[in-house]
Inverse folding.
């Protein structure tokens, strides 16, 4: 199972050792700051933990032997050099805690995201990378023990396979153990979106193990059975599963071996799935957000003023590790931020907008902007075992600068979130000592008036500039304040805390 | 017991991979089912004795 490399070493104020969490039987060295990753417990052969900023993976004896064989193989080092597999090195033997035979150190993933925060094309590219890695591994005599979407993370718009502990020697005559997981967390969500136009994200967010073949089967009745990939990977899969439910996988593996299942067949299956996944496409319906930059009523003077303000805010920031661009839309300011920061996470609620942004950024080879689909009024909660196996969005952030441009009115008026709550949310996403760059759209602005027109009169008496500024003062110091030329919008740069 | 397989790969999910692997794979799946069938008939006399 994949192990997310938490961006934030620990939630603020969290103790370094939490005995109630799964996986904390990992022997923490007395006096060390080893912290077991709550998402890493399914495969007992290896476990990820954090030590300060380092992401480490402890291996038992068998896993250590597999790692050494992997590191010495022909296929693995080139994948790692190409950035397709997370950069990994073995630590000196003395660093291994008791019970573990070896420790690996992984390159840090700048920001951990979950598949239900990815756009369609992101999920497809992640699936293709997983299959490519398996296709490279099989001829070299290796396989992956699982096939989960959580095996993948991102470096900007480049997917990265992070679960180095998943590689194991191939047993001749055995099919891929990760096929079911691959179907449930990658292939089925893609089929759902490509064939039916149904958003896969709510399914993946609600079910950590993905979509069951039987759930899929009910959605693909009648002629829909004939859509590419459905008859075999969904219906036949579900039916063979039901008929063999009483048989153990050990027996079935032996039967398949005896019947002549081979590595070549496994490769043919992988190639077939690659062909299928590559063909899957989804053109999302155009939403008004797609054209938002053109239709939102900004003048060119407003835009250039905003760009200068954002640039000045970022170039004057002491810390420029992570910038969070909330309500990123076409990524104009996220790109600007990427010129002055190590990494930018561009959050946007519209999947069509994010997919378009992802494709554009990927075409440009941009590796410092990660676009994510998320509604800020309904951010990713914690998921999986005890609700911490997959960290919530709030637990993963900690940005040096939070950009909230043309956003506050959508939350405050569009979603009825009280203004103090909006600001509490935005500031909580910043690291201690971080900065907030926020735009306030005055109630008389055409966009604000359009939103207000959909709500009863007098519903938002506190949506006023003076109230907003008073709230800002409770969160930090306003270092800079600019009026946009249109006269109905104000930009603020706030040093938080203190 | 295969200790590498920490994950339940699913018996049906293993078999269906043969079928999606093309003609040669279908042959493997057919062979598997044929052998199951044959072994059922073979076992019967033993069970009765």
């Amino acid at each position: 199972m994949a192990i997310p490399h938490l961006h934030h070493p620990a939630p603020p104020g969290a103790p370094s050792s939490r005995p109630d969490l799964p996986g904390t039987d990992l022997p923490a060295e007395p006096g060390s700051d080893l912290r077991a990753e709550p998402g890493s417990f399914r495969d007992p052969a290896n476990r990820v933990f954090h030590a300060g900023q380092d992401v480490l993976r402890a291996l038992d004896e068998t896993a250590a032997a597999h790692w050494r064989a992997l590191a010495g193989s022909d296929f693995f080092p080139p994948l790692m050099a190409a950035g397709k597999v997370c950069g990994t090195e073995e630590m000196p033997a003395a660093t291994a805690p008791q019970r573990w035979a070896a420790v690996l150190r992984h390159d840090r993933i700048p920001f951990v995201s979950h598949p239900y925060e990815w756009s369609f094309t992101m999920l497809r590219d992640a699936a293709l990378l997983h299959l490519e890695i398996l296709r490279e591994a099989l001829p070299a005599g290796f396989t992956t023990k699982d096939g989960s979407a959580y095996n993948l993370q991102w470096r900007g718009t480049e997917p990265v396979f992070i679960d180095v502990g998943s590689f194991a020697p191939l047993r001749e005559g055995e099919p891929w153990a990760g096929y079911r997981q691959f179907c449930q967390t990658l292939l089925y969500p893609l089929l759902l979106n490509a064939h039916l136009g149904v958003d896969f994200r709510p399914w993946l967010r609600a079910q950590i193990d993905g979509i069951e073949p039987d759930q899929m089967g009910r959605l693909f009745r009648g002629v829909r059975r004939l859509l590419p990939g459905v008859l075999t990977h969904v219906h036949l899969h579900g039916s063979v599963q039901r008929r063999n439910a009483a048989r153990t996988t050990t027996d079935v593996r032996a039967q398949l071996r005896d019947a002549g299942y081979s590595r070549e067949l496994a490769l043919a299956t992988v190639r077939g799935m690659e062909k299928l996944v590559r063909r899957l496409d989804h053109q999302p319906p155009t939403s008004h957000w797609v054209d938002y930059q053109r239709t939102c009523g900004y003048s060119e003077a407003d835009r250039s003023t905003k760009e200068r303000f954002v640039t000045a805010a970022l170039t004057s920031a002491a810390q420029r590790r992570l910038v969070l661009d909330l309500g990123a839309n076409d990524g104009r300011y996220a790109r600007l931020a990427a010129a002055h920061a190590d990494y930018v996470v561009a959050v946007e609620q519209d999947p069509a907008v994010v997919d378009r942004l992802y494709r554009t950024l990927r075409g440009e080879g941009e590796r410092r902007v990660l676009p994510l689909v998320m509604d800020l009024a309904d951010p990713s909660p914690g998921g999986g075992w005890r609700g911490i196996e997959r960290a919530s969005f709030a637990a993963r952030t900690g940005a040096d600068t939070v950009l909230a441009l043309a956003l506050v009115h959508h939350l405050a008026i569009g979603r009825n979130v009280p203004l103090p709550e909006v600001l509490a949310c935005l500031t909580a996403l910043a690291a201690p000592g971080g900065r907030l760059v926020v735009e306030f759209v005055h109630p008389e602005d055409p966009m604000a008036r359009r939103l207000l027109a959909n709500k009863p009169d007098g519903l938002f008496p506190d949506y006023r500039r003076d109230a907003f500024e008073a709230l800002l003062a409770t969160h930090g110091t306003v270092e800079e304040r600019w009026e946009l030329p249109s006269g109905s919008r104000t930009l603020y740069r706030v040093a938080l805390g203190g | 017991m295969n200790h590498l397989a920490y994950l339940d790969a699913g018996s049906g999910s293993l078999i269906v991979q043969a079928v999606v692997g093309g003609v040669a794979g279908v042959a493997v799946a057919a062979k598997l089912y044929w052998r199951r069938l044959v072994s059922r008939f073979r076992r019967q006399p033993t069970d009765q004795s």
Notes: The first helix of chain B runs from residue 11 to 19. The mean pLDDT of chain B is 81. The interface with chain A takes residues 1-22, 24-25, 27-29, 31-32, 35-36 of chain B (CB under 8 Å).
